[in-house]
Amino acid sequence: MTYRARHLLGIEPLHPVEIATLLDLADTYVDLNRQAVKQSDALKGLTQINMFFEASTRTQASFELAGKRLGADVMNMAMQASSIKKGETLIDTALTLNAMHPDLLVVRHPHSGAVDLLAQKVNCAVLNAGDGRHEHPTQALLDALTIRRAKGRLHRLNIAICGDIAHSRVARSNILLLGKMENRVRLIGPPTLMPSEVRDLGVEVYDDMREGLTGCDVVMMLRLQKERMDGGFIPSEREYYHRYGLDPEKLAFAKDDAIVMHPGPMNRGVEIDGILADDINRSVIQEQVEMGVAVRMAAMDLLARNLAAARQEGAA
């Protein structure tokens, strides 16, 4: 298998063949997770520490479940009540963790680049579970796996990413991944929620949902990141839903077999119509959650293999 990375800090450094390798392995873990006995010993004897400096339900639960199904000893650190609150620096935290000799470190942090800094200070494999507005690589990978399984391929598709692009690390990681896999990516949203560097991302930009969705194979909605907004980015939630919320009338402009995605948590009636979100013929939102566990299992498995090889090489 071709996957040589020591850490998973973002999509940007990954080659298409590494993405394909990870998704292929994740496919096998989807099959395992659907069996009565869901255990593997890929991480047997290894220690996984989950450090979430930002609150998370889906991602933290998904990583914890993934580690346990692979046989790891999993520890969740409550960072809201940690020494960070007492003034300890991120580097001191990293050094303290390093002394515990973990093998896998899963980190979510509100500041872009913080996870990369931690990775430079520890002797284990680090997985980025989301850092500021920078990246959320496993979300993009699980989205890619969901698309590939629904569409039978992950290239030359028309994919619309809609909503709050400016504040979304999910959007950034997906733009990078889908671009690497030769897809046509469209960003749809109000100008106030588009990043300033949008024209440099190799995408098409629309502020009209109907025009942007025309002929799309995949419609990926995003959560309004209210906690990252410090001004009047939208007139009101009602107006936002009217113009940019996904409903059956707007979806009709996409292809008849277009799939609907959302990374969660959803604001029903703001970003997406609730009935549409639950439509088993169009929505793959629950499949995304299922693929998340499999993708995180695959990522940790591959990184653990590379870590073992590096340690063997160092001991030789």
TrEMBL record:
The pathway it acts in is:
Pyrimidine metabolism; UMP biosynthesis via de novo pathway; (S)-dihydroorotate from bicarbonate: step 2/3
The question of whether Transferase is a record keyword is answered with yes
A GO cellular-component term linked to this record: cytosol
Q: Does this entry carry the keyword Transferase?
A: yes
- Recall the taxonomic lineage recorded for the source organism: Bacteria, Pseudomonadati, Pseudomonadota, Alphaproteobacteria, Rhodobacterales
State the similarity comment.
Belongs to the aspartate/ornithine carbamoyltransferase superfamily. ATCase family.
Give the first-level EC class, as a single word: transferase
Q: Which HAMAP family match?
A: Asp_carb_tr
Q: Which SUPFAM superfamilies match?
A: Aspartate/ornithine carbamoyltransferase
Keyword annotations: Pyrimidine biosynthesis, Transferase
Reaction(s) the record says it catalyses? carbamoyl phosphate + L-aspartate = N-carbamoyl-L-aspartate + phosphate + H(+)
Can you name the source organism? Meridianimarinicoccus aquatilis
Tell me what this protein is called: Aspartate carbamoyltransferase
In this chain, L-aspartate is annotated as bound at K86, R169, R223
> Which of this chain's residues are annotated to bind carbamoyl phosphate?
R58, T59, R108, H136, Q139, G264, P265
What's a Pfam family in this record? OTCace
| Primary role | Reversibly catalyzes the transfer of the carbamoyl group from carbamoyl phosphate (CP) to the N(epsilon) atom of ornithine (ORN) to produce L-citrulline.
Quote the EC number.
2.1.3.2
InterPro entries for the chain: Asp/Orn_carbamoyltranf_P-bd (IPR006132), Asp/Orn_carbamoylTrfase (IPR006130), Asp/Orn_carbamoylTrfase_sf (IPR036901), Asp_carbamoyltransf (IPR002082), Asp_carbamoyltransf_Asp/Orn-bd (IPR006131)
Coiled-coil annotated residue ranges, if any: none
Question: The Aspartate/ornithine carbamoyltransferase carbamoyl-P binding domain covers which part of the protein?
Answer: 6-148
Which Gene Ontology BP terms does the record give? 'de novo' pyrimidine nucleobase biosynthetic process; 'de novo' UMP biosynthetic process; amino acid metabolic process
Q: Which molecular function term from Gene Ontology is one that the record holds?
A: amino acid binding
Ranges where the Aspartate/ornithine carbamoyltransferase Asp/Orn-binding domain occurs: 157-302
The residues that cross the membrane are none
Q: How does it assemble?
A: Heterododecamer (2C3:3R2) of six catalytic PyrB chains organized as two trimers (C3), and six regulatory PyrI chains organized as three dimers (R2).
